[in-house]
Amino acid sequence: MPVISFVSPKGGAGKTTAALLLSTELAQKGIPVTVIDADPEQWIRRWGEGGQIPAAMSIADRPTEETIIEQIDRARTGSAFVVVDLEGSSNMLVAYAISRSDLVVIPTQASTMDGKSAARAIKLVKQQERGFSKTIPFAVLFTRTSAAIKSRMQANLVEQLSKADVPTFHTQLLERNAYKAIFEFGTTLEGLPSRTYKLDEAIHNARAFAGEVISVAKQCNTAPGEQPGEEAAA
């Protein structure tokens, strides 16, 4: 089953938020998903203590360098998807998780600093590809962007990534108060109070993001002889 890791050497890129949104959207569709919260801050585990975790979602014990590979392998045998929220650094735990990933999502904000951080994450993925003689698909996810305004800095960064043949997600995670509120209330987007500012737009954005990730993950796991987008037979 697909293992999707969220990697960013820089904190504040929206990594944990993106991982949680994907996990809850999957689980609310009844798709079994295991989350491995490897971030030292344990934000997803803290979120789960609110007691409103979807029935199809489970949160694994915090991994270590010694246990991360075993935990990923065990989780993928019992879940349709495994989502790994990695810490904002470049250490062996992160490297081991990347080596077991079927898709690496690299969240980044539209800034020069975040762009350089994304480049470090890509370099780490490439190192694992060489070390394990395998292809590890990855894509950059723009986060905390504006629905109304596309900054010149963002346009320049998109152009640089395109020239470097770096894949990016078409869907961007917009700046939404609702994404912060799910951690405050310990619930899913759908469980937030209806008065939450632009909640419907946040839900639509999250679903579009999750749908694209699922589509990309399926294409990455297409078996020989299958067409991209078709699920391999279980």
The helix/strand series, from N terminus to C terminus, equals EHEHEHEHEHEHEHH
**Count the helices. How many?**
8
- List the strand order in the largest sheet: 3-2-4-1-5-6-7
Number of strands: 7
What name does the CATH topology carry? Answer: Rossmann fold
Number of domains: 1
Which percent range fits the helix content? 40-55%
Sheet/helix structural class:
alpha/beta
Under the CATH scheme, which class? Alpha Beta
Brief synopsis:
By secondary structure, this protein is α/β, with parallel strands linked by helices. The protein is built from 8 helices and 7 strands, in the order E-H-E-H-E-H-E-H-E-H-E-H-E-H-H.
Detailed description of the structure:
The protein is of the alpha/beta class. It has one domain (3-220): Rossmann fold. Helices cover 44% and strands 15% of the residues. It has a seven-stranded parallel sheet with strand order 3-2-4-1-5-6-7, sandwiched between helices. Strand 5 (103-108), helix 5 (112-132) and strand 6 (138-145) form a beta-alpha-beta unit. Helix 1 (15-28) crosses helix 8 and helix 4 (92-99) packs across helix 5 (112-132).
List the helices and strands and how they pair.
Blueprint: E1 3-6, H1 15-28, E2 33-37, H2 43-48, E3 57-60, H3 68-78, E4 81-85, H4 92-99, E5 103-108, H5 112-132, E6 138-145, H6 152-163, E7 173-174, H7 177-185, H8 199-220
Parallel strand pairs: 1-4, 1-5, 2-3, 2-4, 5-6, 6-7
Helix pairs in contact: 1-8, 4-5
